[in-house]
Amino acid sequence: MAIDSIRVSLTDQPIPKVDPFGDERLGADLRFLGVVRGVESGQQISGIRYSAYPEMAERTLRKIVDEFQNAVGPHPVVIVHRLGFVAAGEASIVIALGQPHSAEAFDLLASYLRRIKEDVPIWKHPVFADGTTTTTDL
Length: 138
What we know:
Shape: elongated
Number of domains: 1
Order of helices and strands: EEEEHEEEHEE
Strand content: 35-45%
Number of helices: 2
Number of strands: 9
């Protein structure tokens, strides 16, 4: 995958494996998997149901990627977020990126995650063990 390769998507399928970028200019090749915890608000859950406005969510993800590409320069990035029901213990998001140095990569990955949680119109609905749900922002 080229240093300027970008892939952003939403899926109702399990999070795919993201292969290493394989670019010798990258000293850091990071993968972050956000995994659904088994507890939400102090209660056991069976999982989380994610909903979104898909077109708006993808457009917002692409805008975030464009902003970071412009701010730090070209870098490979893959972002895949699940929609629908995701069971506890399963991944709901993967963010993979590459940077020349590890400190830059960790900072950038944290920035991507923060912006996704703040700006992308994806909502989570925990499904509690008793069958009840709540709606919260991502």
